[in-house]
Design brief:
Chain lengths: 572, 572
């Protein structure tokens, strides 16, 4: 392809609307354009990247016995009513009516459709297992779509659904997908990590997320530095053994006392003023849920893990109570809540809190705290559970080594669904003994357009994108330095045609632009290799090859160029 | 792939819901399943066919310089309001609101989105021409979805949009697409015909439809039997020179008379009763339009071509007036309307009507007709135009040979849009002289899923589908006759693996079923080749190859089988 003919509108300026680097660069480099909030058009280069990612996914799904199908995007409401999700799924579900007034939604996921398909066609254990997948547009009406392709309202997903006879079969399907995902992201040239995750609203038990590692990632991950252990988890899910920090059971409980702490609202202020370690403080937070107000207690150095708390409480909605509610419940301003004497709200204490001796807590009175608070003696929580957020430095739950932290972008997730959907939708089969049993399911997603964006977040520099070779829109750009020089243009054209004839994906930047503009665009677009054809090349028949990732250049004899590019691909 | 593992639910019974053969066979052969009215899931074999058709289309679009992109399915209403189509497009447009109450639609076509994209990115004549295309789900909320994939509400289309500097450029783009479409349908192995067509609601001037020829086709096509002439047109559009049939200008006008025609409503009744040729009768039809009632006159042996009439009248809505309206306007029951003395409605007469001498027409009075009616003398239509439907036997408008008729399924259409969208959406460019000019557009669609269905309509017999080789889901099925015979199973497995290793798309029917069931399924699914492995094959090492299209069989030595299959592909 000639760049003069390519629909590749690069921008000089940084687009004001873009907050994250993948959004900025994909706009600037002419890959995407916004059609509406969270809705994009993929221009030719983006579409080439997406098709490559899709093909890698397809091959790895097929390798595991997956069969590709295509389900509808518009889904009848009846099935969602049958599964119960029509009412539960909130405003994120795009809903519409047809001309006869019948309700439909735009699929955010396809458990209902695929389960209804399988219940109709599968009757016998002989027809199981089945792995069915599709690669398709998905819809989520995000309240605030942003970060370009990382949180859009229309996006491309691969979703595979597994159907097995029993949990043992599901375990096999799950492991197949774990392996397939590992291969997919490896082949995409990405640094990533599978981590234990929370199963969220889709339900089910075991689940892993595949995180592309990037400092800009929204997700925080903790992992064990011991490779042989391999523990890694989303902090939403991560656990860590309880340890007593500097306060042991050997200390004797002392009598409860009230101390004045005027104007001291924060953990830092209180511990600094009283001269105690934050780990001796009990932090008391009030949350609003659909079941009413609850109090959550964690140690002063800890944060509440709201995903864990939500699960413990079995609530759909969880948010910090407002100041007025705190005052009404505790009788004091925010910053002075404490468990002792707190009336009328259930209390959930983190496990670590229960190990404290002679702790500090708010007195439920303005400008006052209690010291020598002893859990059990001075207050009794309704629930004791793990509700704290794990962080770097906490011990690994598997091997005890100190955990490390990293940030990531979730690009894939695999779930064990069990019989959640098959039971409610009646997808059963007859086993070897003629007995009816629910089909055991799993579901497995990869965000295709998100993977493209994550690749950019992970692989870029100040000049533009650095595409991994396997998903680059084109591998090589050939740049004649002076478009008015016939010899340079002739040699560039010759090299371009030779590479093309050898099946190498190459563009020729034949635009009547200054070399600087073309070099800048080459870096911005992120072709892995740039071949520059200047005067020297014409005279010495040596071509300058520049490697986008390292920034290095090398002179390659004209007649070696195709072999050189092939060797580069082989090594990538 | 092994058939035992394939998600391929064939049905013994003819599905009651299916009216046309492609719908029946695609359901029975396990290719598609209905998810809602006009909304289907494509199972693995259908998806393989669709991907092959898509790939052929992609290669032919790219060959002409097309660049593949992907535009959103959900489109913001603003652009449709800008183009004016938000109000004009009726209930066929699926509309929805997002969580903030903003209006969107599901794209039935993408002129607005692509024109808005190009107006933003293209400024100079240097950036033209551009051919941008996508292959994507499209949405039309048909009042009565039916005929399976032939008239669905969600379907896959390839839509390409061309952007040129001027009409001459458009002509080149149009010819490129004409050629590309010809190559696409040829490569799909289909018998088809490009025909002149009506441009309908999308607007524009020149347009051709590509018709897959099939007796079940909804469209009627007339064509010139003289190959060197090549005229072919949808009857909606077809013209034919005016001829006087058996009534010539030599006959002298006679005085107008009223005759009793008690109970004679139809052309047959009246002409039979009066003993005159139907070609001497004037048929008068009243139509309701948004501009009011109009009368349309055609010769008694003719039908009104409503598409032509709609164009002549420049109306969006056109339907036959009801009986009450006819009585109110003509003063007589249906069957007695005529042009003489008809008051208060404009009259459009077909050209042929004006050549009649001493014709018969309704008297606008119950049970009476007029004879010796002479146009010009007895009535004067407001408009004289070509509003008749052409049929077989009419002369070719290009060469005068007598036209023939055939039926077809429209699978593609190419349009010259001109500046219809670019002008209203402000897509302009600066020409060589710095002058702003509207971009000249064309649009070009192929119904991908419709092409699959049309292939079945054209290629089937009483036993099932007969896939053209280039779009067959698999080329070969290997069928061991007795699944309990180890030698047969072993040889079948060996042949299957050899073909697979040689890149031939093959399935092994390893199911524990009787041979008859497997043969029936092989015919139903429509694999081009069936290789049967029975006792004879084990003993003589000769395999029976059966050709689905011809039904013939041939014995092929075991060691020749891969070569034989390859030769078959090469000849296809």
């Amino acid at each position: 392809m000639r760049v003069s003919q390519l629909f590749l509108p690069t921008l000089r300026e940084m687009p004001a609307e873009a907050e994250v680097v993948s959004h900025q660069l994909l706009l600037r480099a002419g890959f995407i354009r916004k059609a509406a909030a969270g809705v994009y058009t993929f221009l030719p280069l983006a579409w080439r990247v997406i098709k490559k990612i899709e093909q890698i996914i397809r091959e790895e799904m097929d390798r595991q016995g997956g069969q590709e199908i295509m389900m509808p995007i518009i889904q009848p409401a009846e099935l969602w009513q049958e599964s119960g999700r029509w009412d539960v799924y909130g405003p994120e579900l795009f809903r519409l009516k047809d001309r006869h007034g019948r309700d439909f939604c735009l699929g955010p996921t396809h458990e209902e459709i695929v389960t209804a398909l399988v219940r109709q066609e599968v009757n016998s254990y002989r027809q199981l297992p089945q792995l069915l997948y599709q690669i398709q547009n998905k819809y989520r009406d995000e309240r605030r779509p942003r970060f370009g392709l990382l949180r859009g309202r229309e996006f491309i997903m691969k979703d595979l659904y597994s159907f097995d006879r029993d949990e043992a079969g599901l375990e096999i399907s799950y492991q197949k997908m774990y392996e397939a995902y590992t291969r997919v992201f490896t082949r995409c040239g990405l640094k990533f990590r599978p981590v234990e995750a929370d199963s969220g609203a889709i339900g089910g038990n075991d689940t892993h997320e595949f995180m592309v590692l990037a400092d800009s990632g929204e997700a925080l991950v903790v992992f064990c530095p011991d490779e042989s252990c391999g523990y890694a988890a989303n902090v939403e899910r991560a656990t860590s053994p309880v340890r007593q920090h500097g306060v042991t059971r050997e200390e004797m409980p002392r009598p409860l006392e009230t101390v004045d702490t005027p104007g001291m609202h924060t953990v830092e202020q209180v511990t600094g003023y009283l001269g105690v370690d934050a780990r001796r403080l009990i932090k008391t937070l009030l949350y609003q849920t659909e079941k009413g107000i609850v109090a959550a207690l964690v140690r002063g150095d800890r944060e509440v893990n709201e995903v864990k708390l939500q699960k413990v409480l079995d609530v759909l909605r969880l948010e910090l109570a407002d100041a007025a509610t705190v005052e009404r419940i505790t009788g004091a301003a925010v910053g002075y809540a404490g468990p002792v004497g707190l009336q009328g709200v259930p209390m959930v204490a983190d496990e670590e809190v229960m190990l404290l001796v002679n702790a500090v807590a708010g007195a439920n009175r303005d400008d006052a705290h209690l010291v020598n608070v002893n859990p059990g003696r001075d207050f009794a929580p309704q629930v004791v559970a793990d509700i704290r957020e794990v962080r770097a430095g906490d011990p690994c739950p598997k091997c005890g080594a100190l955990l490390k932290e990293t940030r990531g972008i979730e690009v894939g997730q695999i779930f064990k669904l069990g019989d959640k959907y098959s039971r409610v939708l009646g997808a059963t089969y007859l086993d070897e003994h003629g007995q009816s049993r629910p089909i055991i399911m799993g579901c497995y997603g990869i965000g295709v357009t998100r993977t493209m964006a994550a690749a950019v977040e992970q692989n870029h520099d100040e000049n533009g994108i650095i595409w991994p070779v396997s998903i680059a829109p084109f591998l090589v750009v050939v740049v004649p330095v002076n478009h008015r020089d016939e010899q340079q243009m002739g040699l560039a054209e010759e090299v371009y045609r030779e590479l093309q004839a050898n099946g190498i994906e190459v563009v020729l930047d034949d635009r009547p632009e200054r070399a600087g503009v073309k070099f800048k665009d080459a870096d911005l677009v992120g072709y892995p290799l740039r071949i520059t054809v200047g005067n020297q090349a014409v005279q010495t028949r040596e071509l300058e090859v520049r490697y986008r990732a390292s920034g290095e250049t090398r002179l390659v004899p004209r007649e070696r160029i195709t072999d050189h590019v092939r060797e580069f691909i082989a090594l990538a």
